[in-house]
Design goal:
- The chain is 4% helix and 61% strand.
- With 310 residues, the protein is mainly beta.
- It has 2 domains: 75 residues, Signal recognition particle alu RNA binding heterodimer, srp9/1, CATH 3.30.720; 234 residues, no CATH class.
Length: 310
Amino acid sequence: MQIQPYVFFEGRCEEAVEFYRRALGAQVEMLMRYKDSPEPPQPGMLPPGAENKVMHAALRIGETTILASDGHCQGRPTFEGFSLFGAGSITHATATQQAAVRADVGGYADITAAGDVHVRGSFIGATQADASSASAAGVVGLSIADGTATHTPTVNAKVGANADITSNANGGKVELIAEQNHDGTGFLTNKGAIATAASVAFSIGFSDADATVNASSNATVETLVEAGATLNAVNNGTVSAVSQSSNTAAAALNTVSAGAVSIRDGDASPVANGSTATRFLGNVGDGVSSGANAFNVLAEGYTAANGAMS
């Protein structure tokens, strides 16, 4: 007895075909789209824009032929039990963070304070994507899960050209700070980009579980005092310009495949970089008298990229 599975991907058949060509060397013996059918689908059978979806395809993997289709293109396939012949599940999760935070004092501003002066831009956050996929079938079980998290915030603190900022407090502070995933006392290492994927496939015959995770943390943090600006803490005070940023990326995946013939395939790619800069182009004091008792310029970054597969 020969059993020939027919797998419905509900709108993602072409993606599945390409994956099995790449991963298993499958040969596409035939592929027909709905628009090429000699008998057009009945009105209402397909959602609008589905003309290019796959009506029928035949793949050969070794000595086995698998038939596939997009079916009625009703959306993402999900695991809803056990299929006697074939079952396929494909899920994607994508999360993107592009926050922008600014703290600016404009050019030619004139600020005098009896106490401290703080100009601070701060952002704390995590960008997380979690994907899971599962399938179970009597003959062929296929499962694909992809998770992608991209964390790219921008944080700026700036004093514009020819601005004048003065603290008259005894031991007063004039601080310009830009920070990302830093709480003022230390770097936050459990934020940034986090991506996970879990793929499970079971079959009496052939099963394949594939998972891909990409986590990228690439924040841009800058503190800038433009040329001509003057910052003073005249009574034994402190002038500081500080940039601090933590870029962390974590990518973790888990694949489980069980069958007479089983394949597990995974790729975890964490990337942590980013840019942290402090530029002080202005003045402290007037060139004759001291503008502060202490002057600090600091740019500090932390990066970590962690990948895990099981």
